[in-house]
Structures
1.
Amino acid sequence: MDHVEIREAVKKLCAAFPGEYWRRMDQARAYPTEFVTALTEAGYLAALIPEEYGGAGLPLSAAAAILETVQAEGCNGAACHAQMYIMGTILRHGTPAQKETYLPKIATGELRLQAFGVTEPTSGTDTTSLRTFARREGDHYVVNGQKVWTSRAEHSDLMLLLARTTPKEETQKRTEGLSTFIVDMRAALGNGLTIRPIRTMMNHNSTEVFFDNMIVPAENLVGVEGRGFRYILDGMNAERLLIAAECIGDAKWFIEKATNYALDRKVFGRPIGQNQGVQFPIAKAYAQMRAAELMVHEGCRKFEAGENCGEEANMAKMLAAEASWAAGEACIQTHGGFGFAEEYDIERKFRETRLYQVAPISTNLILSYVAEHVLGLPRSY
Ligand SMILES: Cc1cc2nc3c(=O)[nH]c(=O)nc-3n(C[C@H](O)[C@H](O)[C@H](O)COP(=O)(O)OP(=O)(O)OC[C@H]3O[C@@H](n4cnc5c(N)ncnc54)[C@H](O)[C@@H]3O)c2cc1C
């Protein structure tokens, strides 16, 4: 789980992208192209792609170490983290031809597959009620509908899309009749695909996308028609563990920053960190972070052993997101007024890390998973 050499190398790479760089991106709501290019060229975004397809073939814990380090160094992996894990659906369920066509190019970064079209404005978390529909017509599908919060759509060549192929009323189970597609957004843009950016409280390059008779070749269907929901679920544990690792990195950044400031800043003739009222929130956040970190490691261990890690992946994501928030809260409070000044980067990281209590899944839904699937309590919805 340590991956010390990887952490050291990522740290070195991140040193070229200091707070000033991220502040500039944040203010302009710009995409950090140079940072993403550097990570791509160093091969980090291909960590999970097997060597036979040109990737590094590393275990999930190594990918987690990469993203944790990115965040702990004050950078923001949200611009590209999905390039690491969306391809997992093609890897696990794609045809040999799809794997040959896409994976080597995703590994080099020639193709960016970092847009994931699942969430819709009306159905929200109730994924099986999504309305985007793909109708088969001969050798292609015709897609109509809308997605929201499709992050990085403007900075991706491909999108993994979840759409209905059989109306919900005609299926036996609501999880059936959904299918996954690889959408070539370069071809579709202006031909049935429209992308509109959504300005958010942090720099996340999220968008809403509209499909108006968009054509997708039938060969771009991933796996079997109607089983797409299962395929998406298969990839969620890896995604949750990687996001959790990012939150651990954020928490470490906040805790280090808060500790250093508490040591340096003198008020009433002594370091503010001498006051237990200042120490305790930082110490508590540290304890929360360490506990969450253990859960991330346990989730990765089970994932790598091929065991079901649904419980650990979900809990890791919730605990880590809460730990990073507690650390952010302690950090901003420790800095007093300076916590609000842009040049300290704290308010930026504070805004960025808040997202992970909502996306890719909100805390309530994790608690509901644990209640129902781990504790055996009745299903509530
Ligand atoms: C910046 C950003 C980037 C994102 N990127 C992507 C992306 O790339 N691709 C993608 O597909 N999606 C993306 N999302 C969407 C994200 O996954 C959803 O916002 C999230 O899953 C919550 O869904 P919702 O916003 O529709 O909330 P809703 O489902 O409307 O829920 C609203 C609130 O009600 C609570 N709630 C709902 N139902 C229940 C229940 N049964 N019990 C208890 N509480 C409940 C939720 O926990 C939540 O707090 C992104 C979101 C954001 C904000």
Note: The domain at 114-226 is CATH 2.40.110.10 (Butyryl-CoA Dehydrogenase, subunit A; domain 2).
2.
Amino acid sequence: MKVINVLGSPRKKGTSARIAKSFTDAADGFGAQVDNFYLNGMDYSGCQACEQCHSKLNHCVLIDDLTVVLNEMRTADVVVFSSPVYMGDVSGQFKQFLDRTWSHVNVDHGNDGAFTSRVPKGKTAIFILCQVDVEKRHTDIVERYTELFELFGYDLRVIRATGLTSGAPDGDVSTAQRQAIELAHELFKNS
Ligand SMILES: Cc1cc2nc3c(=O)[nH]c(=O)nc-3n(C[C@H](O)[C@H](O)[C@H](O)COP(=O)(O)O)c2cc1C
């Protein structure tokens, strides 16, 4: 089983990265192949709206550090997306990556008006979000990106750590880490 771990926080050992690591360490223990992508250390552009992914190609025309991530999204069995909440949304690094996934969408949709996905169905995605605010805040982020992740056909699992302390990358996220480990067991125990 192949796992890609797309890290949206600039903090390599921050709250979201540590929750993601709990999952990938457990997956590794079950023999999964894990590829880590630390977006903040990568050189990539935002979507240029050239639409060549819809007029000429079935992938993004840009060749940069995101190319491998976008390619692996089509082949991985499990995708881990993690981000801190920044200004009521995902981080800019993560949003810029997400915009490039426009190249995974077919816009010549069918009669029902819905876009379809170029990502093969049957994959699982884990969406990890960390925030300082209380749990009831920023549920709109989950709703918004769930719509996109469901378009990609993912069986989506969400793990949130809320009420964290600002400026504390080493804050306690043990409950979310346990959830991540339990999820890895659920997904990989029969692999
Ligand atoms: C630029 C910036 C904007 C932030 N905006 C919010 C916010 O709107 N709501 C919130 O709850 N926390 C906000 N935070 C706090 C982070 O979401 C929180 O510290 C989170 O644990 C960081 O995750 P990380 O350790 O994985 O980077 C913000 C932090 C920064 C640096």
Note: The CA atoms of residues 125 and 156 lie 5 Å apart.
